[in-house]
Amino acid sequence: MNLSFFDQFTSPCLLGIPLILLSMLFPALLLPSPGSRWITNRLSTLQSWCIDLITKQLMTPLNKNGHKWALILTSLMILLLSINLLGLLPYTFTPTTQLSMNMALAFPLWLATLLTGLRNQPSASLGHLLPEGTPTPLIPALILIETTSLLIRPLALGVRLTANLTAGHLLIQLISTASAALLTIMPTVSILTTIILLLLTILEVAVAMIQAYVFVLLLSLYLQENI
Fold this sequence. Notes:
Layout: H1 2-6, E1 13-14, E2 17-18, H2 20-25, H3 42-59, H4 70-86, H5 99-120, H6 122-127, H7 139-151, H8 153-182, H9 187-225
Antiparallel strand pairs: 1-2
Helix pairs in contact: 3-4, 4-9, 5-8, 5-9, 8-9
């Protein structure tokens, strides 16, 4: 029984080939294709409006140097948002429940922001490791603590996204299993459980959107510290 709950987090295979790559490429099919007209239909207009809103929200705290990252951050936001929401559909696989994928997204982007700061303003970037006015006996300890907090950032990004989505998917499966098991024994309790399941599903939709936004927002804040 315990293994069946976690089977949803294993990538489905076809002829021994994992289909995770196909599931990661599928959100790209939702993006509108360029046409000869300015406005093609209502869906393209809505997608363009959402992309413009996301870009403005992410680029507001950054200066002009940080606007070069607009395409990367907006694309990452759309990718995570699409994968998280598509993963809530029945009989689907959510790649963002895999820590390996989230770390593969978090670590290179965090390292890029860190190297950007070390290249453009090395003194200010290294100055974050030691706050001004620190007593002399506390300097070694504070440098060690700040360095640890700096290096743990990509791990926190990946674990946060993985843990929130994994917990939500497990909770949905547990409640749905209980609702189906109680249907013949206690129908009233089963109906109440189903109502709770619907409310939880709505909550998970919000969590999927919020976690994608938080992931990209924290990367933009790390970028703000280094430009």
